[in-house]
Amino acid sequence: MQRIIFGCGTLLVLLAGMELAAPRIASAQDISSSNYQVLAPVITSGGGYATSSSFSVLGVISEFSHNLSDSDSFDLVPGFAAYPFVSTPVVTATGVTTAVNLSWTAAVGVLGYSTASYSIGQSTASGGPYTFTAVGNVLSSTVSSLTAGTPYYFIIRAHDSYSTTIATSTEATATPTAAATTPPSSSGGGGGSSAIPVSDTGTGASFSGSAYPNSTVTVLKDAQVAATSISGSDASFQMTLSNLAAGNFIFSLYSEDNNGNRSSLVSFPLSLTQGAITNVTGIFIAPTILADKSEVRRGDTITLFGQSVPKSDIIITVHSDQSYFGTTISDKGGVYLYNFDSSILDYGSHSAQSKAMIGNQLVSGLSPAVNFQVGTKNVAATKAATCGSIGDLNCDNRVNLVDFSIMAYWYQRTLSANGLKADLNHDNKVNLTDFSILASRWTG
């Protein structure tokens, strides 16, 4: 199913409700274009008030039109597909001594939204109710004076300059720890005392969120493969890295869709606390996107497709002199497909990206861009057999330390499906020969 209104036009106002009380009605005709059709529009003749028992409309409602609006100072992009978005904050929660350290990614707005401040919702029960505290326009905060051993649940709300909530994170949880205790000194001579923690749950990091159904999710720690996991049929995943050293690290995650295409990388700088598990929740990996043509004849359609969370709203953005938007819904396997009419594009180079949204609340980041040409002929897209180059193990069209780290992970290990990509000389093992081949393809 597709929903789209493209291009420029006057503001479209659709009214549905009960019968108008004594309205003045002007005649109207069906309106259609290559992108949509409006049947039996009802408009007022201009001026005055339109009222009913359920609503009132003040002002003038003009007839629907298409491609009739122009200005040197602004672009008008009407329609249901061109509406503002705000990315969903991803929350990190770490339990420390009688407190929880919180940090979150920025809520980034497009098409008019701008984040001015954040507030923290706190509860001792999963799902709330929450008590909210304003913390200003910051990306981290510490909630103190908490009870050790009690789980606490947190959400982050983003607000605009009018204090209106424009985005809400998923819930994160953490349990504060107790202060270290000092045993009493012996009455006998000699010996000393040392601080002994009440409990040590180990130092680590936990990651949870959504990717693609039954897909491989990979976690990198400082550009080295730290763990992999398989998401469920609902695309959800969860994995925990334990027995880590305390300190500052950069963790990154990516996933692969059912065609082996890799998502864009999502990264989180974390400061791990000794004896605590840092929880990162609400991770929403961006969709993948491909095009069926590398060049499309102007006026023909180009098909954009990829994979995301099942039954999610997929927003397609086509970048040109101005941006065009379209929406579709992924199927139960997370696969989506969208046919874009190239007649509204000029000849030349263009690109497209996608993002996913769940329930008008969770919004992913943007996918990698797929490039295409609008020209005089149709040319089918071809998939590079080696993701751009031999040795490009993470398919970013570069051979660098990330690929070296992936290969190092599989060094002298039993190879699985993903590990076979690191076996560059196809001898069913990763050894120094593979590293030599990788070095010969190095791009930096």
Automatic annotation (TrEMBL):
The keyword Signal appears for this protein: yes
Entry's Gene Ontology BP terms: polysaccharide catabolic process
Signal peptide annotation: 1-28
Domain Fibronectin type-III: 85-185
Dockerin domain ranges (all copies): 386-444
Keywords: Signal
Protein name, UniProt field: Fibronectin type-III domain-containing protein
